[in-house]
Amino acid sequence: MTHADDLAAVVDWNQLVAQAQKMTKMSYVPYSHYPVGAAAITTDGRIVSGCNVENAGYGVTLCAECGLISELIATGGGTLAAFVCVNGQGEVIMPCGRCRQLLWEHGGPNLVLDTVSGYRTMAQVLPDAFGPSDLDDYTKGQHS
Predict the structure, then answer these.
(1) Which of 3, 76, 84, 104 has its C-alpha lying 20 to 30 A from 123's C-alpha?
(2) What is the pLDDT of residues 29-76, one digit of tens each?
(3) In Å, how far are 20, 56, 58, 60, 116 from 31, measured between CA atoms?
């Protein structure tokens, strides 16, 4: 059994999906009409969530994961353990590449995601990710 399977067995995924679905109703999507909701549980048991917020200047649109990470930080920080995002019909969807990077930063390689192809760790959905250790390694190399 993998880490993803182990964690998936103890997480209340129905609760996370329900919270993500609730968040789609809060989305601000006047342009795409594609609501997205996200929910996660932290390693200390808190549930955090977010919805997408569009903008007429498309480049400043915020994905649901951005709101989720903002709530994580605003409520004390910590590490994400399990994550899901859904569309307006409640279907599980895969986070975009930008959001995978956000999730890596706050969940690391062992964060488990509910995906369209089953439970996967961040290491599986973002292999060879760039993260804080890359910056540390570079900085240490500058002082050698």
Answers:
(1) 76
(2) 999 999 999 999 999 999 999 999 999 998 999 999 999 999 999 999
(3) 21, 8, 9, 13, 25
Q: Residue 74 belongs to what domain range?
A: 3-141
Tokens read off for 71: 């709530």
Per-residue DSSP letter, 120? E
The residues annotated as belonging to the active site are 65
In whole angstroms, give the CA distance from residue 137 to residue 20.
36
Q: What is the mean pLDDT of the chain?
A: 93
For the question of whether the overall pTM of this predicted structure is more than 0.85, the answer is yes
- Annotated binding-site residues for substrate read 52-58
- Point out the annotated binding site for Zn(2+): 63, 96, 99
Rounded Cα distance between 119 and 47, Å, is 18
